[in-house]
Amino acid sequence: MTAVRAALAPLWRLLPLVTRHRGAFWWTLGAGLLTQLGVLALGLLGAWLLTSTLRGDRAAVVPLAAALLLTAALCALTSWREAYVAHDLAYRVLADLRGRVFGALRRSLPARRRQRHSGDLGAVALGDVETLEWLYAHTAAQALVSGVLLAVTTGFSLLLTPWLLLAWGPALLVIVALPWCTGRMAARRGAELAAANAGLHAQVVETVAGLRELTEAGALGRHRAQLADGTRALSRAQRRVAAVGGLETAVADLAVAVAGAAALGIAATGMAGDPTLAPVTFTLATVALGPIGQLSNLLRNLGSLLASAGRIDAVLAAPPATVPPAAPAAPADGPLVFERVGFRYLPDGPAVLTDVALTVRPGETVALTGPSGGGKSTLVSLALRLWDPDQGRVTLGGVDLRELADAELRARVTAVPQQVDLLTGTVGENIALAAPEASAERLRAAAAAAGLLDPAAGLPRGLDTPVGERGAGLSGGQRARVGLARALLPEPRVLILDETLAHLDAHAEAALTAVLRARSADRVTLVVTHRASTLRAVDRVLGVHGGRVTPADAVTGPDPGAAPAH
Ligand SMILES: Nc1ncnc2c1ncn2[C@@H]1O[C@H](COP(=O)(O)OP(=O)(O)OP(=O)(O)O)[C@@H](O)[C@H]1O
């Protein structure tokens, strides 16, 4: 029993999603119940009409025929209403669930990305949400309706003849017992299918994103062969799931057919008493088989439903990469300080940053340089609070970043990453992402500071220049400038440039550096770079090597242009 409760736990934990749409759910339930009861009434009225005709009871025929017509019209009405409200509920639950899953992914993404592909996450977000939408929007209400209908037909059967229960009781037992017998195998096959699906999804996303690199490396053919392998693995998993499902369907259908034949036998042999009641008896028995079939359908899909619910539950329950402060502190202006910071990506992984002490004052531009894998980007991530340090703290104006509200932090510390990701739209829309409330003047000022409005930037349509998916249509330098304008728009207190200037030619880099310096009187500027010209232009150069920050000379050798580090 405990095992069953544990298996069903993810479904229960996700149940509040429907309770938030109680109104729509009750409408669906009510309309479904009316429709099913209407179908039962139609069957019974039809059978009664037949019985009256057989008995030659002419007085009953006209009112029964009228009642039959009226019930049919009402049935059509409730059936239409049920379809409408069920879909309304479906789309509400779908939107709600997707929003929650994406919200949870956003909170925990920096931590999760280390273990999972974005395609895999996409499969969770979209595929599993679709599955659960089907459960909560359609099946939960249908199962309740089936239960009520079964109770009603059982009551009628007992009034008429308890023998009828002998006809479909065993069928019900078989259908309920079947999923428990095949449950373990179905769960294993369902998990294999989900894994194959997510794997192929991840492969496809990666291939599309890396199409250019794969073509240039001449690796597209090999990659296509891998995709074909993934597709074959998926279809093998699908066949195995279909084999279990097919077996269950066959046994359930056989049980229902045997129950139908038994009901026919009971009706025909007069076990229900008056032989003229045979049509009513048979109708009652067969109407009861409808909900049994629906329950069988639900139970058959329980394995994949539980697998989807488990994965969504895991995403929703994943701890956030950073915990928002209960009572945010007031932000303050001042230096960006790393106080004896230590960090590792995985609890049992190597230390990536060790005992880092670093102070950058407002108005100062500090360059971080050093070998690949030294820890520069990790330092940047901690300044952006994508993660929290394991030891020490990072402060801005004396306030621990952990105590700042997320919106305050995002407006005060901005960065231009190595690869600027842009969304489909225009250059202006992409810049405005950082501060949608910013005026048109502020937007233009940020674009001008990033050099986007210079003819040399090569954007004759300026802010209206269209941008394709993931920045298609813009050069690396243009993307870097859009990223810079986006980072400048909120007028941050800390600006971080992670290899941004490397995308520009020497002339553009010098012009941009001059603009940034002129406008950074009260701003902390951190530049991650290997370029000698940039290193010469900053106030201080620090080396990051093996997770430690040292004066640059100790790492990179004497740099004639660099100011002494401390
Ligand atoms: N998401 C991650 N999960 C696990 N380890 C990571 C992750 N990101 C980086 N690392 C590891 O942390 C170390 C520091 O990486 P980081 O990207 O900070 O170096 P970097 O100095 O910025 O390198 P580069 O100059 O090549 O960008 C490396 O050993 C890297 O393999």
TrEMBL record:
InterPro entries xref list: AAA+_ATPase, ABC1_TM_dom, ABC1_TM_sf, ABC_transporter-like_ATP-bd, ABC_transporter-like_CS, P-loop_NTPase, Type_1_exporter
Keyword field: ATP-binding, Membrane, Nucleotide-binding, Transmembrane, Transmembrane helix
Pfam family, one: ABC_membrane
Source organism superkingdom: Bacteria
GO molecular function: ATP binding
Subcellular location: Cell membrane
Domain (ABC transporter): residue spans on this chain: 336-565
Chain ranges of the ABC transmembrane type-1 domain: 26-311
PROSITE patterns to which the protein is assigned, alphabetical: ABC_TM1F, ABC_TRANSPORTER_1, ABC_TRANSPORTER_2
Transmembrane region(s): 24-49, 61-80, 159-180
Membrane topology: Multi-pass membrane protein
PANTHER family hit by this protein: ATP-BINDING CASSETTE SUB-FAMILY B, ATP-BINDING CASSETTE SUB-FAMILY B MEMBER 6
Protein name, per record: ABC transporter ATP-binding protein
Protein's organism: Streptomyces chisholmiae
